[in-house]
Amino acid sequence: MTNKTKAIVPFSTDQEQSSLRLDLFTWTEVEEYLKDCKGVILPIGSTEQHGPTGAIGTDALTAESVALEVSKRSGVIVAPTQPYGMAEHHLGFPGTMSLKPSTLLNLIHDLLVSLAMHGFERIFIVNGHGGNIATIKSAFAQAYRSVSTMNLPLANSFRCKLVNWFMVPEVFHEAKSRYGDNEGQHATPSEIALTLYLEPMLLKKQVALPKPAPAGPIYDYKDFRRRYPDGRMGSDPFLASANDGKMFLDKAASALTRDLTNFIKEP
Amino acid sequence: MTNKTKAIVPFSTDQEQSSLRLDLFTWTEVEEYLKDCKGVILPIGSTEQHGPTGAIGTDALTAESVALEVSKRSGVIVAPTQPYGMAEHHLGFPGTMSLKPSTLLNLIHDLLVSLAMHGFERIFIVNGHGGNIATIKSAFAQAYRSVSTMNLPLANSFRCKLVNWFMVPEVFHEAKSRYGDNEGQHATPSEIALTLYLEPMLLKKQVALPKPAPAGPIYDYKDFRRRYPDGRMGSDPFLASANDGKMFLDKAASALTRDLTNFIKEP
Amino acid sequence: MTNKTKAIVPFSTDQEQSSLRLDLFTWTEVEEYLKDCKGVILPIGSTEQHGPTGAIGTDALTAESVALEVSKRSGVIVAPTQPYGMAEHHLGFPGTMSLKPSTLLNLIHDLLVSLAMHGFERIFIVNGHGGNIATIKSAFAQAYRSVSTMNLPLANSFRCKLVNWFMVPEVFHEAKSRYGDNEGQHATPSEIALTLYLEPMLLKKQVALPKPAPAGPIYDYKDFRRRYPDGRMGSDPFLASANDGKMFLDKAASALTRDLTNFIKEP
Amino acid sequence: MTNKTKAIVPFSTDQEQSSLRLDLFTWTEVEEYLKDCKGVILPIGSTEQHGPTGAIGTDALTAESVALEVSKRSGVIVAPTQPYGMAEHHLGFPGTMSLKPSTLLNLIHDLLVSLAMHGFERIFIVNGHGGNIATIKSAFAQAYRSVSTMNLPLANSFRCKLVNWFMVPEVFHEAKSRYGDNEGQHATPSEIALTLYLEPMLLKKQVALPKPAPAGPIYDYKDFRRRYPDGRMGSDPFLASANDGKMFLDKAASALTRDLTNFIKEP
Amino acid sequence: MTNKTKAIVPFSTDQEQSSLRLDLFTWTEVEEYLKDCKGVILPIGSTEQHGPTGAIGTDALTAESVALEVSKRSGVIVAPTQPYGMAEHHLGFPGTMSLKPSTLLNLIHDLLVSLAMHGFERIFIVNGHGGNIATIKSAFAQAYRSVSTMNLPLANSFRCKLVNWFMVPEVFHEAKSRYGDNEGQHATPSEIALTLYLEPMLLKKQVALPKPAPAGPIYDYKDFRRRYPDGRMGSDPFLASANDGKMFLDKAASALTRDLTNFIKEP
Amino acid sequence: MTNKTKAIVPFSTDQEQSSLRLDLFTWTEVEEYLKDCKGVILPIGSTEQHGPTGAIGTDALTAESVALEVSKRSGVIVAPTQPYGMAEHHLGFPGTMSLKPSTLLNLIHDLLVSLAMHGFERIFIVNGHGGNIATIKSAFAQAYRSVSTMNLPLANSFRCKLVNWFMVPEVFHEAKSRYGDNEGQHATPSEIALTLYLEPMLLKKQVALPKPAPAGPIYDYKDFRRRYPDGRMGSDPFLASANDGKMFLDKAASALTRDLTNFIKEP
């Protein structure tokens, strides 16, 4: 295997400086791509409440934007964003759409196995939602088992890696230093900032909010709503700005491009 | 239940003439929306080969565009597009990502049950991929069972409807009359046309292709590749134009807006 | 593979003009059969209400009779009839017994994989119930995946085909021309006619019925019963006669024998 | 609950002395039936090799005949025979069709829950195949859980009972006394005898066979075929006669009618 | 395969006369062990009520003690005891913890497949709970299928055997002769005796109890509690003594050591 | 709800200073216990390789000892230790027994639901294996959904908490300070130390080992073995001593007793 990042000659001048969106590739272009690079980025978000002023699609919007930017910088192809994840604890708020853990486990498993069948050897999941982490990790183990059972030629070099853009140290520390305790744990100013940068119409929804319920544990969805009545966990999203969002995007993309490059080069 | 279409006062002037994207709503806006309308649109596509010149994301791109347009015209909210579907038979072509039928069944089930928990009573699935049809229908039955077991208050009025934009009579007949036998059954000029309208960069990929393998039956993915070596089933996507795509979008959106309105009004 | 229909020398003179019932074969006879023909017929019905005068077993009785007749005419072996299918929407009527879609999916999957393990390459499912169609199609995709994973020698030539006897054009058009709108969509005169031919004791149950609820959409079982209070969807089964049933059986068997023969010969 | 056996006034004189076949009932007749009796018989067989001279459908044919006879004698309704069961260990012989244990578990579960939804309180499974026993028992526990979760009104009186006609003491001892060690454990003269009585054309397949492999343990299907090369486990089915079959049917039906009556009367 | 029992040179003098506990082995010791012996003992119990004086862990405690003793006498390694089993019918009593049949089926399946991957060819399950029997047997069939699909080198010699220590004839007859009808069917004096021998502190819980409800059928957990109000089924556990327990342990271990030895030697 | 820790009057003087083992309770004692305390401890380990000198049962032995000690100090009942967990990546080493993530998810789900049915409101899982974390968290969400669907009276106060004894800050920092980089990530001196304290016979297995492979990422089990040939990830377990183990047990139990007490008191 001779993985080279940025070595792929793009298929049109349009794409040269752009994200490499798998959904805009043809299968013949993917075949060509695989001769040079075995890596792929798979973004996943969630469709769930983000407080009274945050967009329900926050986790998918942000994960997608980070993934596209990492693709642009690394030359690694990016698959479509899976917009639905595991959001059981948010089901007490209208608009939340959640996959049961067992469903998400199978979904991620099937996508990973599909990619393995084509010879993708390094799957880099860019995740936008904390609630997905556990199940995605479980899915890795289940996919390794299947790939091994199927006796695919790549079984020995098939590897999956999960990164959460909001937990990238450069992002996390910046958010803490900028917002302090008001960063909170859900509907955080950092993620809302990124959505403001991506979707300016969301700015109109920004209003000052009362002091949020303090961040704490997460149990079932009824308890969640009782504990965090407006959906926020200790956060003040009114602090967010589109400029901050642009900065977080850059920091996340920069760090993850480095991680992805290393992941693909890993012997 | 007093469902009214178009009665929703949009939440900002921006949105007034726009699609109502659930992912850009806050949960409080969804709560408000549900007082006026119990309907929701859920687009689903697939990520699979579409011949040597068609985009792998064709089915998601097209379903999403139709769904957004129907939302704009009907004032009914539209959920994020599920980009992965059941594409087992296309797995012989690089880039195809497929959910097993059992996985897709659970995915659709979970999304439907989530919506039911919030009081959405009319779920209108706009589908872009023939391979999803069977499993989505199966999921309806499974979701009805769950909603009934959960004793949700809306159990008696919870209804799901599947529409396939490419099978809308107005679209189907126009495609047949315009392209004749060259419409084929996969990577059809009609769906490719719509992608050209949506993503102009795809125009560069359009090249004249040799005569395709004739459309025929679909079995497993190895047989599919042997039978349809370049992925097309009897189609000549080179006939497609962005203008045609715009027209198909209008025809599909027009017919489906009517269907959705009736569906929501249904006693 | 050299499939020959009608080439099988039957194992006894009794069977020569008879259906070839797998359940009356010995395994050594099946082994012998497979040297000449790789095809098998698998009938499936449903156990569900068919209006106040129709038999609950209508879909299994009719599918079985058509399958047996096709076997007789084609010389292709016929497996036992699966009498239970997906009938969730009929559960509001006593006597209906339904498999959840996920269960039916696994059931069909397992039967197909069993047949593949013995070298049956052409599985011809004769179905008597519309509610089974979606799930059977889903099961095909799931079975192809398993057969491929198992590395069975026949993987490249294993093919499944679903036919619905009541949707055979010759049957469908004759029913429409004979009964017009009174054919309806459930507990139709055409299917009831076939049961009258098969089980003369059912004639006593035939009585004139009030005008049925018009055919319409199908949602969950409570809605179904409210919408179609006596179980009929726009049909007048009192129009049915045993003679008609005999005729439908002949038309269905004739068309399907031709289809099956072509399916087995398919290269 | 006041269950009365034999109290049901049959719906036609034809049926008066006959088995009460659910598949020949209408739903209105089932509704009527349930006013008098909450019991139902559910036969299950298997489709699997029965040695070089025995019918593949032996277990379904025999279970069905016993169930019909018990219905006739007890006045309890009998559901269609499930012809496919768990026969994994017989898959080394052509013609065997097997459900995985997990599939059979769900199948039986779904049928039991369907019956519970209509108010059937006593489900009497008449089984013809040893390999089904374990999974059917597992399904009982799973169904009790579901019925309890669904809060059906009958939850407290819903009961399932499994009987195996070939293990009825009167049958078992007669077979042992008549055939001694030649009864064996699979493709036994007693079960073959019953098929000869039911399907006289099977008589032609009866030939003297070499001494069988002795009965022993059952592991996977390859081991099974190596251990029992012609499929028999210590049995000499050539000893079977149609007359014996008639006698076994009578003994089984007599004992099971008594058991069923007690089961239904049980407070 | 040249299995030799008792041929294993233990890894330390401590272990020489001891049970060979897998959990105290290192992986290198297991590797060494497998050169001499392909057998392994897997104990399974249940965590469920055992009447007002019996320990909830009775089934795990007893199965473990028998398994350890068999290991000591046979030199066959013993895996950790699975303490949770299928105890749905006991859920009406506080403290019972039950796996659904489908869960237990998968659990046993996974453990068997793990052992097969290492080359263990003879799995000897020592069970302490009647409610587990059906599901364990189902799991055997499911595991054989998986091992066969995985094409493991040992597929042809992989065999699983279930033994229930309380049904060993030497134990069963002794219990009947010692306690007569007071042995009953749940919370029996024989199993309680063994727990008294193993955990002397349990002696304090022994008190004379009123006449128990007579043993009878088992349906769902609410019916169970109504039928057997204190959890006992016809048993008088006050008859139990630690001395009896010691004797039962010896009888069970002696018989099962013989059975295990034969099982491993089996060609 | 008035949870009181340490308020339970033990059932015998023996138990007064002891762990409260659920498996040694009777159901009547559990009923009594629940009047005072709604908490329960559930230990879970894994059965997997721990390097060439570490016990395969390390994770279960350690989790169990910590759980028992926490029970002793808090007066909260402790359920039996689940000895098998998710250890897919260790399957390359003989003796490892692993549950697939989907199986472990269902297992934990079923145990949690059982406890909820009895009114346990605070489930405190003491885990000994990093590989279990993701799946246990997934299981919490799945269990909350089920408990909510079942309409159990406690649904609003049912809460699950996962703690990993080796990640308790007091333990983790002490290990780092004592062993530095030699703590590593698998078969660590801290966990081995605890096993030496618990099972002195393990001391004989302690030998000096060559420098381990450095800790790094975890992918599938074949990659794991290639990357970490003797099973260790950067650790030097030869540094471990029984005395250290005793100290770690005390630190873990002390911190977790405090956490559990707070968890139960939580309003």
What is the strand content of chain A? 5-15%
The residue fraction in helices of chain A comes out at 40-55%
Major beta-sheet overview of chain A: 5 strands, parallel
- Largest protein interface? C-D, 60 and 60 residues
Count the E strands of chain A.
Answer: 5
Q: Helix segment count of chain A?
A: 9
Mean pLDDT of chain A: 93
Look at the helices and sheets of chain A and give the structural class: alpha/beta
Radius of gyration of chain A: 19 Å
Distance between the termini of chain A: 9 Å
* Order of strands across the main sheet of chain A: 1-3-2-4-5
Please, what is the oligomeric state? homohexamer
Low-confidence regions of chain A? 1-16
Shape of chain A: globular
Give me the strand/helix succession of chain A: HEHEHEHEHEHHHH
